[in-house]
Amino acid sequence: MISMFTSISFERKFGCMNSFSHSFTDVCKDVLLIPKELVDVSIGVGKLKETFKIYVNQWDSFDVLLQRDPLRNCYFINDGWETVVHYMGMQTGIVLVLRYTADYIFLLTAFDLNGCEIVAPKSNDSPIDDTSSPNLEVPQITEDLQHQSDVEESNDTDSDSDYVVSNESSDDIDDADFDATVSDYEADTDGYPLQIVWYCSKHFRLNVKVASLSRIHRTLKMTVENLNGVDTVIDFRQEKHGKGFRYAACQFTKKFTKPNGIYRNMRCKFVYSEEKGKLILKKFYR
Asked: Where is the stretch described as Disordered (predicted)?
């Protein structure tokens, strides 16, 4: 009765499932099957009583509930899913890719028959009928962004080994170290919704909140603009710390901080621009 998965993706190092895809059928209009491993390993059965959110773009989210079917020994999205289908205008044959990040958040991407991404409009640009209006919310992008790492950079400032992508990296450190850090958010007067203060003595990371806005999970790359307006493309790698997926910059010191005269014990202020889709360096100081 429920469509089979067309693909399933696992975290290579940790063996945790993080995404899957469906070919949309008539059955999918009412219910969407969730891989059992995703719930058992990545999400946790104990979270099924909570409300999850599905983001269909960078602005709009829908509340859904996950349920278990004891007869078929599987899990599915039921309550709230029909609203997502209506809002996206889904048709038979399109491919749905659903990615679980963390903090009860799913990212939904749809592709048409030609393999092109179907872009959902902003809710305030294309309002839908009041009778089926979803519970849309603007993501709280000024929530905690973990800008400080648990691992200090090497004392050798000439080393080029800053965050080389490696499976040997220690990514299994408890989340408590991150959650205890004091946030450095401030109100931004330049019209940007998100401002980050980052200490150069720490590795640069993006948490899942900012990662979901930048959609970095699709390319593992992000553009960082320096004070002179020059762009540098920085590679990121995905890492997992207990309850969520984070993205760590690879060779950030070599590619960005050193060329811009930024060294240890200096503080940098970045803003993230949704419109430009990049991080912008505003200033740095000791």
From this structure: 146-176
